[in-house]
């Protein structure tokens, strides 16, 4: 059935060849100084220029890296109207996206590596990095900042385990944000604003961006970037009569300072703050329309993320030495309606859950990167390119959950303190053999430990009779407890789990010419162990879940034709996943925990085509096929999952495309894009209790840039989900009521924007 879907998708792409694809990088604006030079040469420089990535912790041409990486420039993302990680990931083959309850909770599934489609408090299979700093905590997740791409140098999507260079936070791959650095050469800035509409909503969206780059002399420069936006909601609360309850707003500030102390020594300070607020959650309690009729409390969701990075770089003749010291603080207060999870909604009683998640995560990395191949009289030690380093991170994480009703106040309190620590030695070396072969070998040896202190307290309940149906419903938790004025400690779990791990990496590349290369790799990935909450004191819930690991094997080919006007790349891969961390439920059906169960094997292929077409057109096509199945029987809490069960959230077929047209004008340039993304059906959990329908999204943009006008304005009109495909993207079962909770993909939207430049960029 999967191959039939792939054939169907291929037919659609061929039929709609003028409608399709994503972006690697559109970096340079075509010049209008020589209109007669033709739009073809300008477009060639725009879309086919070398794309430099730093995912291997050294600069390299994307097409020379023997790993699967997609890179997107910040300017290119803005041109087609992408403002979040969900929009970015849809343009990367083999990557599926599930929206979250709030802006900081999207689920990214790379090559089918997933055991659930719904965001939880626990670890993710994918990593997120700002520069080289992990945004994911080892145990209690908290918010995962959905960083705004305005004035980013690039966003990189790394496929396959990244454990060698990035540790235990990138089991299946990673999303990496790379900011623009301060420019020592000139003072300039940008100011942008847009206003938009959203179907199924009575409000408008607004967005404001500003960037300023300021040098102070020849060796000191600063860059400040600020963004603020709000988006109306589209979910209706039937019980209260409120419309558009899931409206959101966000603020983001980046400040970067660079000081070139000497020709060889540079210091960089990078600080980021991101804050979000959502008035209510995005849950609906059906899969037909965005309405909710069983909500007793608003799902108020807030988040704050602070990152500070201090980088010191010193350039020796043969290598560059870097010291990166950082601190990541995250705060995630929430009030969630638990009525449907516990089943109190069937009695007309609302149950709230007040959650606070806080973490502080300092880290340090010292690494040495070769500037030139090594020199030696010994053949074995000659001509090596290398990265070698030391890494340390510690993460203090705190979770507090208080459950209660309006009548009782707090009934149950959970408190969890988790401390995680990692010390690592890593290296990544490569060497050419002759003119065509290059061999690479890397590894990460590290020790990781997690210390947990989890306690549960039942609070005294006053004004609630023993015959109240709420008491009977919560019997597993509070019935027959000797409650008094001080409350009762139901239990406290303390312990430590430690592991010593080595993650190897092997790559081999054969380059016949600049137009043809073949690569293969074998890479092992690892994900941290962690601690579970257990408010119900279920004896079957373990205090810790252990680490899981993946071996990723891939074979790829990269080709160029017709002087680079056509690029065709393809990759086949297999992932072997063992000791999977699977989300389960305790005996109340209301609380989630993680356990290690069985394994999976994921196989598939990815293909990408870039074409420079006549008359100023450029087309990019991507597609993938993923067969992700369990290898062992597993008795999921929602039903049995025999060997061969398709992993949840894994779309067997996905594809995307972009058609770009650029046309030079006498005073500027007009460009337009038409984009299409497709995500095949997938299941919501291992028991396959719900099948998410396929999703097709069509987008378009038109941009008019007038560099000769004052302020060099750029006017844009951007449309998303033009056909208004509105389907449940995540469906979550609530066993205590026999119902479901759904999150729909956002409806059709249009945005009109303008951007001005101050100074000479």
From TrEMBL:
Membrane topology listed for this record: Multi-pass membrane protein
InterPro entries reported in the protein's UniProt record: Beta-barrel_TonB, Beta-barrel_TonB_sf, Plug_dom, TonB-dep_rcpt-like
Alphabetized Pfam families for the sequence: Plug, TonB_dep_Rec_b-barrel
Domain (TonB-dependent receptor-like beta-barrel) ranges: 273-704
Signal peptide per UniProt: 1-27
Location of the TonB-dependent receptor plug domain: 62-174
Main location: membrane
Protein name: TonB-dependent receptor
Species annotation: Zhongshania marina
